[in-house]
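Researcher: Next entry in the queue.
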Amino acid sequence: MATITKTQKDPRVSLGSTPWGNLTALRYLLQTSATGAVLGSDSSAPVAANDVIRVGPLPAGFRLVDSLVIVSDAAAGLNGKIGFAYQDGKDDAKVPQDDDYFGAAVALSAVARVRNATGNTSVTLPKDAYLTVAASAAVAEAATVEVIVFGIAEGVQ
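Model: Structure for this entry, 157 residues:
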């Protein structure tokens, strides 16, 4: 049995002051009022079916690795597509926008912790993006959802 050692190391693995990389967790909080409007947003209207909510920024050079959705106050009958869209609205040929990168029908209708179960490979964002949640149904009640995105700060290539 041979022992094989990779001699070409990926320089992106040793960013920062630690030789094992820079795993980061970005936390995004999405809350709605008693009428279903997104708190802290540019709209006072209740969330309607198929509305896309830009929950927060994802920085360029961030390698998306995993996600965790924590539903602590559920909204009846609601599922969400969780993904990302570029801030400039234009696709990138190597890493296109993906509205369900983290999940296509994530149940936001029951209190739970939901780990990313997609088969998507990790990708590095070539430019600034938004974390997005697309609502499957109208929201007419208070709800609280945290989305935690795990990634590695690699920088733009």
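Model: The CA atoms of residues 25 and 150 lie 4 Å apart.
Researcher: Noted, moving on.
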